[in-house]
Amino acid sequence: MSQALSIAASQKAPPALRRGACPSLDEPMQTGDGLLARLRIPNGRLTPRQLQAIAKTAAQYGNGQLEITARGNLQVRGLMPQTTSAFASAIRAITAIERGFVVETSPLAGQDPLEHADPRPLAATIRALPITGLSPKVTVVVDGSGQIDLNALGADIRLTAADTDHWNLSVGTNPIGTVATTDAVDAARIILGLISNRGETARGRDLAPETIRTALAPLLANDVAAVRRPATSAIGDFTLDACFATGIALPFGSVSSSTLIELANTARGLGITELLLAPHHALIALAPDTAQLQTWRSEAAALGFITTPDDPRRAISACIGSDGCASGQIAARALAAELAERHAALFDGSVTLHVSGCAKGCAHPRAASLTLVGTATNCALVSNGLAGDTPLVEIAPARLESAFARLVQQRLPGETSAACLTRLGASTIAGLFRQE
User: What pLDDT shows up at residue 170?
Assistant: First the structure.
């Protein structure tokens, strides 16, 4: 990551607004509700006491809203320029913060009995490579092929364990080949060098696969068939080598500091000593027996956390909207929660919904099956697109309930929601939302 810079007590835009930069503890990013700081916790590991302290610090210096991102990073929102230095010092007194380019592994790495290989030694060696000139967004994923699926995490370089001695390599979305464990670091170093040579905004997707294969020719082994373990989300129960684990998720990736403090206090009271930040907005608790974890999960459910993989809120992305952002035109998370509760049947795992307070689409920068976007007077509906795309129709927020009810009624017996949307097509969907 780029060299850290402190934020002066002024109204100047922070350095993280430079093109290609990412928010960090020392370089927060300007958003509609103040500055956003992303905390890269080493291996995502925190004690309940540390998580509680971070939540208290977020309330003291920010607006009290925290997030666990899709990649398992912790974010603090609503910071002010004049307090970012004090905030950074307070956080560093609680936990170490990781720097450098991003190398990610499963939160269960090294403890997962179903892994083909422990990815941590390989990840640590790659993380220590002296590569300069990289975009701060460049990411390496080292996946031991364990119980938590990392396939949804984008990566400039992805190394996936085929067996204990071989790793399948891809760059961007292009499969390249297989490398031996003894050659994997050299392969990563060569590819990172190729990316760096193309400039500070270059990404792995900018490299032609044949260029990569030519550069790696001495290292590429014959293809090794990978037997993938059945992957799961981070939500649910896991049996590890020396303990047990259970994962929950933050609804829409966000939680208030007071709720997180209460959850951490519950963990402390139950004797849970370790919490793991995990992909897909999740938090995993480790304990020596399952009784502690069952109680913790029940308490988490009562606090509003997602505790089952089929919770319809998992299919919805939503920003804070007008409840906490100056750019928001609608109360996006409140609307998303209402739709999830009243039309749970729509969210069968085959579709995604993005509810965005404005056309910037911060909560989901990718295409969604359906997107609702707040405008000055209405909600705009986008099909298979981004929040900033041309909408099919605009509809008053008060009419959304009946519009979604009509949409759900169109599903045929045994039909998935995705198949239903495809069958209906954009014009029919727009007509359903136009009806009075």
Answer: 95
Distance (Å, rounded) from C-alpha 208 to C-alpha 205?
8
Least confident of 7-11, 100-104, 377-381: 7-11
Q: From CA 358, how far away is CA 298, in angstroms rounded?
A: 35
| Whole-number Å distance between alpha carbons of 428 and 208 | 41
State the average pLDDT for the chain.
90
DSSP conformation letters of 2-24: PPP-PPPSSSSPPGGGSTT----
- 194-223 per-position pLDDT tens digit: 999 999 999 999 999 999 999 999 999 866
pLDDT tens figures, 112-138: 999 999 999 999 999 999 999 999 999
Cβ(79)–Cβ(87) below 8 Å: yes
Helix (H), strand (E) at residue 122: helix 120-127
The string of DSSP letters for 285-320 reads: EEESSHHHHHHHHHHHHHTT-B-STT-GGGGEEE--
Residue 33 to residue 80: CA distance in whole angstroms: 10
Bridge partners of 360?
A: none
